[in-house]
């Protein structure tokens, strides 16, 4: 930390460059292997439910060729070009997903309306990142000037985030249900209710495994996905040879034009099913925090993409010869001799498929919690080497209950497929819009390339969105219901936090006012160290005045501590603790800086690290005058003496006073915020503060 740096030089132990390169390649390939069990589960198992989700009516050979052509180009353009080639580079220091795109825009261009954006000014981390952006584009200036534009951007980010969380509920449901449905072909007596019950049991087991962490789960799941990724294209090749060897002529885009020319509106409606061929593509971006760009790209390009192209080709070849088997378009195309091995692999793979969006949901919830857009929930870091690997028990069990409920209530695979299509298409469209903004305002991509990207993907995904919205009454409303609840929680929490910070800034206490309060003869300075927690930095929290007036005391050493979350994934260790000395005796300021991908705890004793940084600051910051060693020793001695007398941590337990003068909107939103605030976790346990050292000071804020 700030106490110094010790350099240990071991020249003999330094590996040669070639050896280091080989080690890096091995680690990347191992990570690429592990991505099979986490990132690509949803994408590579999509053949289980794509054809069964399509409302086909007496399809012809030309129809199937057109459908395959649509799926091939959708996979190629959206999964390969957009996500694996472009979006994956729009990470925010290793973190991906919709919220990471939003935070990247806010951090680089100061266009956010986050509570934490008021405390950027003194961070060298932020300043260093900002240096590359000087002359702003007209679009950046528009967002800075227009609060409406900034709120619209926030709405898009929230909607995308809520939809991905909804994806984390629907992916496990549709994947496991579609796989378990394979029992009904060899055993017609097996009822749909039994299939749903078995699917629910499998999902419960999957969610119970989450506490072991992404690395362990992926190591367990990757062999299963490896078997699936290898076996299904082999079956596809067999089906192509046996049923329709010329299937790859459908790669020509003219089959797409002929398909829509012949089928018109019916063909447009079928897009609600074909869009499911890229389910899980967003996980390539959202799961970046668990892996890295190169490993995800290698796995997709050399295994996932060829596997999907061959599997869909095989399915389509079978269906051209057996056009009415589309309601069970996966299991019917499996040869009888390998049916049961493929069934076991597919069921296992469907379970694994759920992992990609579950992991992404954990990452997104963590980012939202740290950026103050979601109530505080417990977030556990399941890896010592990879900060992005997180697990949240509360979120995990809520997801489990909702997944099981979706299966038991909406057991029809078509309804869940319609809901799934809405999620997939909307998330793609939102990512396209945010990525376009990143290209224009941050990457400064040439206008021609930005226009080409936006026109191609916005039109393509816009057509998909228009098709899936026709299924709103047939299951398409499910993700909107989930997203509405999540968005209400996120906005309610954000609104309450914003109002609290606004109140604290307007009612803050200056150091001059603190000096006046301490000058009162009835106020005593008591022995010990007090860490007084505050949400504001330029001034002191109004709770301090409330505390002094009622307690008539203040500790001899008082450290006003602010936990400051920057819109960066990680803060350098030497910038973690920032100390500031006031003109008042024994009064200091301390800012603990964290990014949203940092673990909010200290490896050693929190108090020791802050006091160590404080002593270092006292010794190094003597101003322009010659340092008075006696004064320094006396101040350090006072610190140690106060520490021996005892340490206490004081935080405000504030509530809004919602009076009769409040409008109906404030009554609803602030009342909802208070309900969430009273039931969420405290911010202090993450710092490992002992329970017996905590004091909470209650105060009412006038709404």
UniProtKB/TrEMBL annotation:
Please list the residue ranges annotated as the K+ potassium transporter integral membrane domain: 32-513
Q: Where in the cell is it found?
A: Cell membrane; Membrane
Q: Does the keyword Hydrolase apply?
A: no
The record gives the membrane topology as:
Multi-pass membrane protein
Record-given protein name? Potassium transporter
**Keywords for the protein's UniProt record, in alphabetical order:** Ion transport, Membrane, Potassium, Potassium transport, Transmembrane, Transmembrane helix, Transport
> Principal localization?
membrane
Q: Provide the family line.
A: Belongs to the HAK/KUP transporter (TC 2.A.72.3) family.
Q: Where is the K+ potassium transporter C-terminal domain?
A: 527-701
Q: Name one GO molecular function term.
A: potassium ion transmembrane transporter activity
According to its UniProt entry, this protein's organism is Arachis hypogaea
**Which ranges form a coiled coil?**
none
Q: How far does the signal peptide extend, from start to end residue?
A: none
Please describe what this protein does: Potassium transporter.
Q: Which Pfam families match?
A: K_trans (PF02705), K_trans_C (PF22776)
- GO CC terms: plasma membrane
Instruction: List where the protein spans the membrane.
Output: 31-52, 64-81, 152-174, 194-212, 219-241, 266-286, 298-318, 338-358, 395-413, 419-440, 447-470, 476-495
């Amino acid at each position: 930390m700030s106490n110094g740096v010790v350099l240990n030089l071991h020249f003999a132990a330094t590996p040669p460059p070639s050896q280091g390169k080989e080690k890096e390649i091995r680690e990347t390939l191992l990570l690429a292997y592990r991505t099979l069990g986490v990132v690509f589960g949803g994408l590579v198992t999509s053949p289980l439910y794509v054809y069964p989700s399509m409302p086909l009516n007496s399809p012809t050979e030309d129809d199937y060729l057109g459908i395959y052509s649509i799926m091939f180009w959708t996979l190629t353009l959206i999964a390969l070009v957009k996500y694996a080639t472009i979006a994956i580079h729009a990470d925010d220091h290793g973190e991906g997903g919709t919220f990471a795109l939003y935070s990247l825009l806010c951090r680089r261009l100061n266009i956010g309306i986050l509570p934490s954006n008021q405390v950027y000014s003194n961070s060298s981390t932020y300043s260093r990142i900002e240096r590359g952006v000087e002359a702003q584009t007209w679009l950046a200036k528009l967002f800075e000037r227009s609060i409406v534009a900034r709120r619209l951007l926030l709405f898009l980010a929230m909607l995308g985030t809520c939809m991905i969380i909804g994806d984390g509920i629907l992916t496990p449901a549709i994947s496991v249900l579609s796989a378990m449905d394979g029992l009904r072909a060899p055993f017609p007596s097996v009822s749909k209710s039994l299939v749903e019950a078995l699917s629910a049991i499998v999902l419960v087991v999957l969610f119970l495994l989450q506490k072991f962490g992404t690395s362990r789960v992926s190591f367990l799941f990757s062999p299963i996905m490896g078997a699936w990724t290898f076996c299904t294209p082999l079956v596809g090749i067999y089906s192509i040879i046996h049923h329709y060897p010329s299937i790859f002529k459908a790669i020509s885009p003219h089959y797409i034009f002929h398909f829509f020319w012949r089928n018109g509106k019916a063909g447009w409606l079928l897009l609600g099913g074909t869009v499911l061929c890229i389910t899980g593509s967003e996980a390539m971006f959202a799961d970046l925090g668990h892996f890295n760009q190169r490993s995800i790209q290698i796995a997709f390009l050399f295994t996932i993409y060829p596997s999907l192209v061959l599997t869909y080709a095989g399915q389509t070849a079978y269906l051209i010869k057996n056009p009415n088997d589309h309601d069970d378009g996966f299991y019917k195309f499996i040869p009888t001799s390998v049916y049961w091995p493929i069934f076991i692999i597919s069921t296992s793979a469907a379970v694994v498929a759920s992992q990609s969006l579950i992991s992404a949901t954990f990452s997104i919830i963590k980012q939202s919690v740290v950026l103050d857009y979601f109530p505080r929930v417990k977030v556990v870091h399941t890896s010592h080497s990879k900060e992005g690997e997180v697990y949240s028990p509360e979120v995990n069990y809520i997801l489990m209950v909702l997944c099981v409920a979706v299966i038991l209530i909406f057991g029809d695979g078509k309804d869940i497929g319609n809901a799934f299509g809405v999620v997939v298409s909307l998330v793609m469209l939102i990512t396209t819009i945010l990525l376009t903004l990143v290209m224009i305002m941050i990457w400064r991509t040439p206008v021609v390339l930005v226009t080409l990207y936006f026109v191609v993907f916005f039109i393509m995904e816009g057509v998909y969105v228009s098709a899936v919205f026709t299924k709103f009454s047939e299951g398409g409303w499910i993700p909107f219901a989930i997203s509405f609840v999540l968005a209400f929680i996120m906005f309610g929490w954000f609104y309450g936090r914003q109002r609290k910070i606004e109140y604290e800034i307007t009612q803050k206490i200056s150091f001059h006012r603190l000096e006046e309060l301490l000058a009162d003869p009835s106020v005593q300075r008591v022995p010990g160290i007090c860490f007084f927690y505050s949400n504001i930095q330029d001034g002191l929290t109004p709770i301090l005045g409330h505390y002094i007036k009622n307690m008539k005391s203040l500790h001899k050493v008082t450290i006003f501590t602010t936990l400051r979350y920057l819109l960066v994934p990680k803060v350098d260790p030497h910038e973690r603790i920032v100390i500031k000395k006031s003109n008042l005796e024994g009064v200091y300021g301390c800012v603990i800086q964290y990014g949203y991908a940092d673990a909010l705890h200290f490896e050693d004793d929190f108090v020791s690290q802050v006091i160590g940084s404080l002593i270092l600051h006292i010794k190094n910051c003597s101003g322009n005058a010659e340092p008075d060693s006696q004064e320094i020793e006396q101040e350090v001695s006072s610190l140690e003496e106060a520490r021996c007398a005892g340490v206490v941590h004081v935080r405000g337990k504030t509530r809004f006073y919602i009076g009769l003068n409040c409008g109906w909107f404030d009554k609803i939103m602030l009342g909802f915020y208070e309900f969430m605030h009273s039931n969420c976790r405290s911010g202090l346990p993450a710092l490992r503060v002992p329970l017996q050292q905590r004091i909470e000071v209650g105060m009412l804020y006038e709404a």
